[in-house]
Amino acid sequence: MQRSTLYRLVLLVGFAWLLIIVFVFAPGLFQAQNTDSQTLIQARSERIESLRHSKQKVFYKNGTHRLSLNLTAHSTPVHVFYSTDEGSLLGLIASINSVRSNTKSPLHFHILTTKTLEKPLHDWLADPRLSGSLYDIRVMDTDIAKMVDGKQGENVMSYAMLFYADMFSDVRGKAVHLDTDTVVQGDISEMVSTSLGEHCIAVSEDCHAASKHVTSYKPQYSAFLNFRSPLIKALNMSASTCTFNAGVYVADLDCWRKHNITRELSDWMKRNKAGSLWGGEPGGSGPLPPLLIVFHQKYAKLSPMWHVRHLGWRVRETFSSNFISHAKLLHWSGKYKPWAGRSQFTKIWDKYYVPDPQRKYKPIRKIHSQT
Which of 99, 131, 219, 302 could form a disulfide with 206, with the two C-beta atoms 3.0–4.6 Å apart? Predict the structure, then answer.
């Protein structure tokens, strides 16, 4: 009887100690496990959220193209087009950097160039100061060169602006073309939002006061087209029609394709090669004459402040510094380029220039003279 009682007492004491261990120590263990799980879940959630809202640089290769992707959630990039050869390469870099520096929206740059410049451009655009945007570099189609009259010593790359819709068939909707001798001081998404109405393109007219024309010829069609030609006469255009500058334009590439603009431009280039429709006039040749024909009275107008040009026609300042500071886009059209000797407002261009990592291409500087 005593042994049975002692046995029961031992069992009761053991059970009591077990209860003490469970109620005292177990809650802490369970709480620790629960806290660890919650911490892990929270950390994962924060990581996912940071990836969605951060702008990370991701470099990858697509064929021969190195692209830098700006990851921004639920955003559509602004498409910006350039064409460049060796002579305008430095201008391209500064122009790209100016767009990047002043635009909040994500950007997708499309560049047509020569085969020899493809790799140098890849290396240059990998600079941290230029990364964070998407770059698509393609080599100019050699078939285009066949349409250019080589006798006139023309720069084939200058005609690239006419063929973006075909050579970049994957790009839809609105896009911007910029000459390489430009600096953008405003948010380029503002220019892209220009209403085109029923037209395929928006340009800036040369007769507006803000353009302050300083060239040696009048800004009218007769300065670019041969009005003695029967083909030009048949178009019933006035020789005094105001011209526009195509160094900067906004185009709806879908509209461009729908109306077969590229084919129409190509046809006029072929006719010129056979019959001298332009090239001997004061304004010279280049891609503007066929554009003047195809888009005669068929374009929307850019705000004059989005194309302040002729800065390359002389070294002496054409505009006041105050006016230039308020301009949205500066264009050094003319022979005086900010990277090639003397130029007006060179300091503005210098602010955006990023040196060549290979040190092959460098700006040329000369003492300014008031001419």
Answer: 219
